[in-house]
Design goal:
The complex is a heterodimer of chains A (302) and B (227). Chain A is α+β, with helices and mostly antiparallel strands. Chain A is 73% helix and 7% strand. Chain B has 7 helices and 10 strands. Chain B has a 6-stranded mixed sheet with strand order 6-7-8-3-9-10, with helices on both faces. Chain B has a 4-stranded antiparallel sheet with strand order 2-1-4-5, covered by helices on one side. Classes of the chains: A alpha+beta (302), B alpha/beta (227).
């Protein structure tokens, strides 16, 4: 038996228009769910950007004693680079350090004069290490502690930054796990609410479904238009949610940029507009179809 | 056409609504099923469309044992049987045209067939001018004629009418009965469940009287309403 796809969509659309109040309610509810979903995306983006920009600023440095030879220092650098979690190691020789220092304080005559009067270079050579993950700094510090050239290392400044580094690691881990958990819980609640709204819509048409069965409609004939109707709730809900979300992002983006210059919220969402539109519409339509499908199941027993 | 053999229906725990009925209805017959409310008429009708299952006994419709029809095949079986009810059971969100068209769509009819047959059957039942009306915009008599049009669109072998005049005034009731007789003349077996004495006596065909779930009288010719 041929079930005409166009016919199903058409019937779903006709039902959608004729059940205007219920459609409005279900669509509104789903639009809220999708807005929540978009809100979670924004939150995820903001936290990941904040953590990333903080992590960018955290590093670990090892300062060598004056007697350390270049060979020794470069061996330590090679050792560090052989570690899997090390992103980069920058070696700064004593001369480079002095040049940098002079450059940095070029306007400060007092410093320049003091340096001129010294007959030796007071600065130490150093290795500046960045890792892929802030939680790795402690193990890098430990690695340096146990290195065969530990004796020529003056100090490891991880211990000074340790508090900041650990706090950022904690925040980053917390946001990732709790953010995901919160997103999942909210997602499930939103789905239940949507499902219930659609269930009430279908419950109202219980008698209609019974009649369809009495005139000999197969389950697919009954289910098809309801699934199409559910998909339409999702489609319109997605369009409403996007119509609210983008102006809202536009409105707050400047404020966020003023507060955190690294974060360009509008740029992120406008840049990925096609993907976000597609994602929200697909999520909306699937949510609608899934809710309808579950809700109608119990009315379809013969 | 329809055979019932020792059919029993018991609603748990001990409510016996059909109590061992044996009945045979031949192709082309017009039979009035009479009895007071609660005699078991509606339950019997529901068992013929497999809306209800008998607790025991056998029901055969058009040479098919209803027990052997699997759940997924029930819709196909129902397309062989037309049904009309006291409360019309029309799809309120669909127009007259769509109500009839729906019954055709579910059996896989093409749009061309639908466009051709639906207006034709609506004009046969006198609803040519109500094609685009919703059931709420129609009178009781019109609704019942629409239900008849819908039930006849498959040219069923049997038409089951459960108190079809229960919600209608005298004039509309007779219109519906005339329509049922006409359908029967064209070869469809009609089973009419009613407790309307006048209608049964006017029809004057086979009358089966039921009481407390049993067939208490079966007048095969020129029957009268007697319980």
């Amino acid at each position: 038996m041929a079930i005409n796809f166009d016919k199903i969509i058409n019937t779903g659309w006709t039902n959608f228009k004729r059940n205007s109040y219920l459609s409005f309610g279900a669509t509104g509810m789903m639009a809220l769910t999708l807005l929540l979903f978009l809100g979670l995306l924004t939150f995820q983006f903001l936290t990941s950007q904040t953590v990333a920009s903080l992590e960018e600023k955290v590093d670990i440095s090892a300062y060598f004693k004056a007697e350390a030879t270049e060979d020794q220092m470069l061996t330590v650098k090679e050792d560090l680079l052989s570690l899997a979690n090390v992103d980069s190691v920058i070696f700064t020789s004593r001369d480079d350090a002095l040049a940098d220092f002079r450059l940095k304080h070029a306007d400060d005559e007092l410093i320049q004069e003091s340096l001129d009067q010294l007959d030796f270079n007071p600065l130490a050579a150093s290795l500046n290490i960045k890792t892929r993950d802030t939680s790795q700094y402690a193990s890098i510090a430990q690695f340096l502690e146990n290195n065969k050239f530990r004796s020529v290392i003056e100090k490891i400044d991880f211990y000074e930054n340790q508090g900041v580094i650990e706090r950022i690691s904690g925040i980053s881990r917390g946001i990732n796990t709790w953010g995901l958990a919160a997103a999942l819980i909210l997602g499930v609640i939103a789905m239940l609410v949507t499902f219930n709204t659609v269930r009430l819509t279908i419950f109202n048409q219980k008698q209609e479904i019974e009649i369809m069965k009495l005139v000999g409609a197969s389950n697919w004939h009954i289910r098809g238009p309801y699934l199409a109707e559910g998909g339409l709730y999702g489609l319109f809900a997605a369009l409403i949610a996007l119509a609210i979300f983008y102006p809202a992002v536009y409105a707050v983006s400047d404020k966020i940029t003023a507060f955190a210059p690294d974060i360009n919220l509008l740029g992120y969402f406008v840049g990925g507009m096609a993907q976000i539109f597609l994602l929200v519409i697909v999520v909306g339509v699937l949510l609608g179809i899934a809710s309808s499908s579950v809700a109608i199941r119990k009315h379809l027993q013969v | 056409m329809i055979k019932l053999h020792k059919v029993k229906k018991i609603y748990e725990p001990h409510n016996v609504v059909i109590d061992g009925i044996d009945l045979e209805i031949k192709q082309g017959e017009f039979i009035s099923l009479v009895g007071v409310s609660g005699a078991g008429k509606s339950t019997l009708m529901k068992m013929l469309t497999k809306e209800e299952r008998p607790t025991s006994g056998k029901i055969i419709v058009d040479n098919t044992d209803l027990d052997e029809i699997r759940d997924k095949d029930v819709p196909f079986f129902r397309r062989k049987i037309g049904t009309i009810y006291q409360d019309f059971k029309l799809l309120t969100k669909k127009t007259a045209f769509e109500n009839v068209a729906f019954a055709m769509e579910v059996s896989g009819a093409s749009q061309e067939e639908i466009q051709e047959d639906v207006p034709q059957i609506l004009s046969i039942v006198g609803l040519a001018s109500k094609v685009d009306s919703f059931p709420d915009q129609m009178s009781g008599g019109e609704k019942q004629r629409l239900a008849i049009a819908r039930s006849m669109i498959h040219r069923p072998l049997v038409l089951l009418a459960d108190e079809p005049t229960g919600n209608l005034d005298l004039v509309n009731s007779y219109d519906v009965v005339k329509l049922l007789l006409k359908i029967n003349e064209l070869g469809t077996t009609v089973v009419l469940a009613t407790h309307d004495t006048n209608i049964v006596n006017t029809i004057g065909r086979r009358v089966v009287s039921m009481d407390k779930g049993k067939v208490v009288r079966d007048q095969t010719h020129n029957g009268r309403y007697v319980i």
